[in-house]
Amino acid sequence: MSKETEKTKVENQTENNEPTQSETAEGEQKVVARKEITKFSWTLNEIKNNWVAYIMIAPFFILFVLFTVIPVAFSFVLSFTTFNMLEWPDIVYAQNYIRLFLEDDIFLIAIKNTFVFAGVTGPASYMLSLFFAWFINELRPKIRAVVTLFFYAPSISGNIYLIWTYFFASDQYGLINSWLMRLNVISQPILWFQDEDYIFPLIIAVALWTSLGTSFLTFIAGFQVVDKSLYEAGAVDGIKNRWQELWYITLPTMRPQLMLGAILAITGSFGFGGVITALVGFPSPNYCAHTITHHLDDYGGQRFEIGYASAIATLLFLMMFGANILVNKLLRKVGE
User: Fold this and answer.
1) How far apart are the first and last CA of the chain?
2) Residue 30: is its pLDDT beyond 60?
C-alpha cells in the first residue's frame, strides 16, 4: 500500500472516529481511537515522537518566553499599579488607563501623531518595498546585486539618516536653504526641523527613505522562489498580462514573505520614535511629532512611573496586535 493511500485511509478513519494505528518505539502497531484521546494527550504523543525537533527549538523557545512573553505579561500586570522602581507596587486597578484618556492631553496628541505616522509610512513603505523588489527581480543577476545594495544600504548604515540634518540645516549653510536662497525662492533660511509645518513631512520622508530593510530583502527572496511553471499554467488558464501574473500567481505564492514584510512594516512604523528624537529633539516643538513611543520613554525612562508607562506599553502592544490581525485578513484576499 502506498503512503498516499495509507494517509487517505487514516484521515477517513479519523473523520469517522474509527480506530487508527500509530507506531510505538519498538515498531509495533498500536490501535488508538481518535475519540478516546484528548488533545493534550495527542500533543504529548507528538512531542515524544518528534523529541529531536523540540530539543532543537528549545533554546529559542526558552529565550522567547524569558525575554518576550514574561516581560509582556509582567508589563500588563504592572499597568494596574503605581510603581517607581523603589517601592512595592500599589494596585490602582484601571486608574492608569482612565488617567491616560481623560487627564493626559499629551497622550491624546501622541495617539493622533502615531496613527497618522503609521497610517502613512506603514502602507507606503510596504508598497515601496514590494514595488522595488518586483522591479529588481526583473533585472539581470549582476545588475540586480548592485541595485539591491543601493536600495538596501540606507537601512543598514546606522545613523545615516542624520545626513538629512545637513541637507535641511536651519541656517544659510544648509544645502536646501542655500539653493533656495540662490534661486531667490526664499529671503531667509527656513527652520526645517524646528518649524511645525515642516517637521512631520520631513520625518515621513526619512522613514520612507530608510524603510527598504529586511522586508525588502524578504520580498526579493519571495520573487526568486516562485515556480516558473506556474506562469505557463496560468497562461493556459487565461492569464493575459504581467499584472494578472502578479496578482493571481506571484503574490499568492509568496504570501509568507508578504506576511513577514507586513509585520516588519507595522513594528517599524509604530516604533520610529528614536529617529524622530535624533532629528527633532525631545520634546518636539509643541509636541507636533510626539508619538506613543516618546510618551512611553518619557514616563518609563525619565520619570520612572513604571506602572503608568506599562499602561502606555500595553496600549501600544494592542494597537500593533490589532494592526497585525487587520493586515493578515487583507493578505488572505490576495489573488481572489
Assistant:
1) 38
2) no
The per-residue pLDDT for 129 is: 87
Whole-number pLDDT of residue 26: 44
The C-alpha atoms of residue 336 and residue 81 are separated, in whole angstroms, by 47
pTM of model > 0.90: no
Q: Positive or negative, the Cα torsion across 164, 167, 168, 172?
A: positive
φ, ψ (nearest 5 deg) of residue 18? -90, 160
Segment (H or E) for 30: strand 29-33
Alpha helices in 139-213 (DSSP H): 141-152, 164-167, 175-182, 196-209
Spatial neighbors of 306 by CB under 8 A, at least 6 apart, are 78, 83, 84, 85, 300
| 114 neighbors 204 (Cβ within 8 angstroms) | no
C-alpha cell at 17: 472516529
Domains of the chain, each with CATH number or no CATH: 1-49 (no CATH), 99-331 (1.10.3720.10)
Q: Assess contact for 306 and 220: CB atoms under 8 A.
A: no
